[in-house]
Design a protein that fits this description.
- By secondary structure, the chain is an alpha+beta fold.
- Among the domains are: about 70 residues, no CATH class; about 120 residues, Glucose Permease (Domain IIA) (Distorted Sandwich).
- Helix content is about 35%, strand content about 25%.
- The chain has 3 helices and 14 strands.
- The strands form 3 sheets. Strands 3, 6, 7, 8, 9, 10, 11, 12, 13 and 14 form a 10-stranded antiparallel beta sheet that branches. A two-stranded antiparallel ribbon has the order 1-2.
- A hairpin with a 3-residue loop joins strand 8 and strand 9.
- Helix 1 packs parallel to helix 2.
- The longest helix has about 80 residues.
- It is rod-shaped.
Length: about 300
């Protein structure tokens, strides 16, 4: 069988001679096959390219979404920690109110460490600033909040019925400063021996005011070898408060005072390494931890 040929004649627009390209049928089939294969390869390549481009776009969107979610989680964690700290604060506040109301004894509460030396009086340990947000943690906070709400409701009713008693109950710090020494066992700063400290020491500048922590009457103003200039107030219901190391008395025995009245000035009289006020609370002649009777921050 004779081979079949196909001719392609190219006629230019110029006066140049025409050109003829002659291809056999087999060659044309081969070229068509090559072109078809190339076309299929191109189609596959384009499909793969656009598919990969789509995947890249989705990946980029997922990365951006992941960044946004991490930022949201970080914000939620900050809010969660603030909420937890607030609940802990109210819990400590409620514990103090329970002690003041006589509904719980200090021994029944978790012992709290000394302050951090900042302004104001605080014995609450530094809270953990990082905590994972889990269902158990959220559930614990919810239960604590519910318990505090019920307890505060009970305390509100109690104090409403005991407004007179509340006026004679110590509830503020006698001076502004930082907690230099807490209530309890410590190494004596003079002898180094282990001794029990029956009050708290609030360090501050000489001459700063010292306030009565509850309504009462001045029992005595005296000068002691250890306590220096000392004031003792009686507040009824078995409460007494003691203020030591004063530089000056501003009240006299028998004088009535209200909570917040200035009764003296900070000093370092008696046995003192620096200017501070040694503050004690006695309930029925027994020393108790003043920390539980300071509600202000």
């Amino acid at each position: 069988m004779a081979k079949r040929f196909f001719s392609l004649i190219i006629i230019p627009h110029s006066r140049a001679s025409s050109r003829t390209i002659t291809l056999s049928e087999k060659t044309i089939k081969i070229l068509i096959g090559i072109c078809g294969t190339l076309f299929l390869v191109l189609v596959v390549f384009l499909i793969d390219y656009f598919s990969v481009a789509g995947i890249r776009l989705k990946y980029k969107n997922l990365v951006n979404e992941n960044i946004r979610q991490k930022q949201m989680i970080a914000e939620y964690k900050v809010s969660f920690n603030k909420l937890r700290d607030s609940v802990d604060h109210f819990k400590n506040y409620a514990q103090k109110l329970n002690v003041m109301a006589g509904l719980k004894s200090p021994e029944a509460l978790k012992e709290i460490g000394i302050g951090d030396g900042s302004d104001g009086i605080s014995e609450t340990p530094a809270a953990n600033t990082s905590q994972d947000i889990t269902f158990n943690n959220i559930n614990n906070i919810s239960k604590n909040a519910e318990g505090i709400e019920k307890n505060l409701s009970t305390l509100t009713k109690f104090f409403d019925a005991q407004s007179t008693r509340l006026a004679f109950t110590p509830s503020i710090a006698p001076a502004r400063g930082y907690l230099a020494s807490a209530f309890g066992w410590r190494d004596d700063p003079f002898t180094g021996k282990r001794t029990f400290h029956y009050g708290i020491d609030i360090a501050t500048q000489t001459g700063n005011p010292i306030a009565a922590t509850a309504d009462g009457i001045v029992v005595t103003t005296k000068r002691e070898k250890i306590g220096g200039r000392t004031i003792i107030l009686s507040h009824r219901f078995g409460y007494q408060t003691v203020y030591c190391h004063l530089s000056k008395f501003l009240v006299t025995p028998g004088q009535k005072v209200k909570r917040g009245d200035i009764i003296g000035l900070v000093g370092r009289t008696g046995k003192a390494l620096g200017p501070h006020v040694h503050y004690e609370i006695r309930v029925n002649n027994k020393e108790v931890n003043p920390f539980y009777y300071i509600l202000e921050e």
